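User: I'll paste a sequence; please echo it back and then give the predicted structure.

Assistant: Echoing your sequence first, then the prediction.
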Amino acid sequence: MSPRSRPVLAWAIDVVLLVAFVLIGRASHGEGLAGFVTTLLPFLVGFQTGWLLRSGQPPFAVLRSGAVVWLATLVLGLALRALSGGGTAPSFVVVTAVVLGVFFLGWRALAVVVGRLLGRRGTPARRRLGGGPSS
């Protein structure tokens, strides 16, 4: 994988997970797709802000990228949701923090572990992927 494609891949993974978060949340409350965009939009603004704030950091870095994206998505998403009249009950805030944290930090942590394992073995797969954990 080329160094130039890593941020695009990381951004795409994050977007898919953010959309999954919204879809799962709406489905768990028996809500249809009608309000999908209004539910997604505040978090998407926070998410994009997080991606701008983490600019220049390795996209797969758990703390330098993942935590920034997670916190921006959480804080700005909840703030914008509250300003737009959306619910921000304490239980929703806790679930949002945990799920987005697991999503945005979890896949990055997994990528670091896999990269280290592949790097330790020096397998051909590591060469095909184009790097190790510092990617």
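The helical segments are 6-28, 36-53, 62-83, 90-121, 124-129. Confidence is low (pLDDT under 50) at residues 125-132.
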